[in-house]
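Subject line: Sequence and fold of a protein, written as C-alpha cells
Area: Proteins and the way their chains fold up in space.
Start of record: The labelled sequence and C-alpha cell lines come straight after this line.
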Amino acid sequence: MDFGVKKMYIGGRLCESVAGTQKEIISPATGECIAKLCVASKEDTELALQEAQKGFEYWSKLSLSERNEWIAKLRNAVIAHKDELHYAVMYEMGKTWESADEDIDMIVDALEYYPNEMLRMRSQVLPDLQGSHTNILVHEPRGVV
C-alpha cells in the first residue's frame, strides 16, 4: 500500500515544506514505507501560525450555526472517506480493521457531539448564593494556542 506524499495543510491549501524535507512512514505491520510525510521547517511553522491567526479571525466572526455547518461538512467528509481512513490507520499504526473502526467512529462522534455542546453551552446563568448578582458564563473563541 502506498499513500504517496502527504503534504501540510497551511492557509487553506496543501503544500510541501519550504526546505522540501520529507520523512518516510514505515508500517509496523510490514516494515515497508507506506507514505512520505512533508516535515515542517521553522519557516513553515511560522507561516502556519500566521495563517492560523488569520483563520481564527475569520472563524471567530462566524455565527454558531455557520461554524456548525462547517463542522458538519468535515464530519460528512470523514464519513465519505471512511474506508481510506481505515486503511491509513491500519497501515500506519498496525491496527486491526475493528480497532481502526473504533478510531474513525470516535472522530465522527466527536464531530457530532461538540457542535451540539456548543449550542447547549452557549451561555449559562450561574447561581449566586447571596442572590445579589447575576453571573453569566459565556464561551467565546480565545485565539490560536
Summary: The chain has a mean pLDDT of 92. The longest helix spans residues 97-120. The first strand starts at residue 5 and ends at 6.
